[in-house]
Specification:
- By secondary structure, this protein is an alpha+beta fold.
- The chain folds into four domains: 233 residues, no CATH class; 238 residues, no CATH class; 87 residues, no CATH class; 79 residues, no CATH class.
- Helices cover 32% and strands 14% of the residues.
- The longest helix is centred in the N-terminal third of the chain and has 27 residues.
- It holds the Pfam family Helitron_like_N.
- InterPro entries: Helitron_helicase-like.
Amino acid sequence: MTVFCREINEKDNQCQSETEFRDQRSRLFGQASYQQNRQGLTVKYEDSGDNVYSCNHCDACFWLGEAIKRSTSNASIIYTNCCRKGEIKLERSKPTPTFLEHLLNPDNGSESRSFRENIRIYNSMFAFTSMGANIDYKINNGLGPYVFKISGQVHHLMGSLLPSNGESPKYAQLYIYDTKNEVSNRINAIDPNHNNVNIKSNIVEGLIKMFDQNNELVKEFRTIRDRYENGFIPTLNMTILNRQPTDSKQYETPTSEEIDGLIVGDIGQHNSNKDLIIESKSGCLQRISKIHPKYMSLQYPILFPYGEDGYKPNLPIEQIPGNSIKKRKRISMRAYIAYQIQDRNNEVKTLLKGGRLFQQFLVDSYATVEEDRLDWIRRNQKNFRSEIYKELCTSATAGINKASNLGQKIILPSSYTGSPRDMINNYQDAMAICRQYGNPDLFITFTCNVKWIEIERYFQNQPEYKIEDRPDIISRIFKIKLEDMMTYIKSGEPFGEIDAYVHTIEFQKRGLPHAHMLFWLKKDYKCYTAADVDSIISAELPDKNVNPELYRIVSQFMIHGPCGELNLKSPCMRNGKCSKFFPKPYNLNTIFESNMPTVYRRRDDLTKFILKNDIHIGNNFVVPYNINLLLRYNAHINVELCSQSMLIKYLFKYINKGPDRARILFQENLKDEISAYLNCRYLTPHESVWRLFEYSIHSRHPAVQHLQIHLPSEQNIIFNECQSIESIIKQKSTEYTMLTGWFKANTIYPGATELTYTNFPSKFVWDDQKKCWTPRKKCETIGRITYIYIL
């Protein structure tokens, strides 16, 4: 008993000494001291300006914050997300046909607004192909703006020229079969029970005439119709050619030479696997190649009313005089689409006026880009085979000499953003930073605000358009705001100097982007007492009379729910309780203790409340926030103290959990990681734009150096399946790894034995070509940390 009491007294004394140490340090350093020295500094909203700047090469409009080289002088601005500094040169778009221009402009009355609301239906009426995708319709059940969201893979399918016996025409068949009743046929194909009163026959009739006059694809299908109705061709095929061998131009006005109606007996079998061959009658659908130039025109006739060519794999990159010769000689599909979705001076594209259909196009486009990349990975799996070195030696001893018989074949490499291996690497990198600097101090969640003044000003010249019509603008503004916030926090102004940070981008269920950020503060700026916490984090409603702007922002963005007994139908409710544990209990003071979650001050002040959904809301529903960040960025910014070790693993896994996935398991092909990735994928327009512009998903500082560790002869070997096992074993890269190279360096360099493996990169550099460690130069600085991973 005496021993037990002595242990308790020792722990009490230890806790008391820790508390005294924190209080003493806080008086000299800490957040409270730092914030007190900053008193008097006023924080105002950081206005990012307007997109009045333009690319010197292609006239794309952008904000100053998007430039890679920023200056108020337009001549000094460099922007690469449009034409890559003049490397991409494409012809300008044709003006929108008059009838379609009238329908796409919501200023032209109720008919135009109704058309825009139902534009996806009208597009489906005239599409030549069907879009295969699982569309999430539930997402638009609420009161929020419309969002086009899919899960799984995307593909376009086309059937025969004529319907099977007894079936009604649909898609491309509507241009050929029974065109005397084309208006009713198109409406019946989409709405057979005539339940949709928003479909107007006069609009359908006007679109038919417009496409007949302007669309080269439609004209060729009409030619086939005329020949069929006159009885000249009882059986026919139609081939939409990929490209002509004599075509030397990058872009050419579509002509009838690009689309040929072919009689079956005249040409024999066509061997091209890229051309689109449509049979007269067929019971099966054919899948259109993603690299076919008519891929998008066939699916989106309203966005491409002239039947224009789209992306071609052979589009060359312009070589700019004076610039270094680029390795890449062709324009990538991603770069092509990123070029197409830019606003440009003196050019108004039909594509950008598409509203909800433009959302669908963005999702379809990125899905096409991503699936094309994954197809390349699948076709080049021989470059991604891996096996343990010992297994290679055992196979060679057994007389097996074919490398194609070893290793896993279908994998998604860690270099692919968003893959499981990529997410694991990001998690391990974050944990390595944590091991170096201790527990992080601040966990900040920053959510996009679609009512930012920059976005509202953008739509001032087109007041009838909705914010949902341009998800690309929303993503671009959020990117500007996020970069400014990271720069602002790293400058040390709001919280003091920063040791390290990690941030990742996610997209909400409704598609809006938001960022999760972790920051490590230097020792002099950490939180040691409750006063330090109160100096940077508040969980109470501000005084409306003292700071009305802050009160407005908190009321609009930082109130949870209401939920619980006040609203049992709130989306956050799970089994009768709030999943976010609101409403929070009232507290007179902040409770800040080691290894315990911080409990923020929430006083029960009846004079401070807001009215939300006719319910009085007090401090118990306020999400913790920082005053300076709210005033500067006018958005939902949740700031939490997270210096407790019990939260670390959860936080790092949370910020690196990756995008939403469908919880589906396909038993047939569990080893096909590419198919599993695609089948479980969700995509929204905002994420599609983010990926098309190649905005970063993850960021961290300092950099992390991966160090391999393995048992003898059990290192992983990457090899080409065409190689022989004997040649693989003889390669120098097979024998030497970072770990074996470290052993060798210890025998060569004096002083190397004084360094542990994890500290070795501080004075030595790994040469991946020579497979050896070499001493660093004395002037070389280290801006990275290391961690060991097991092969």
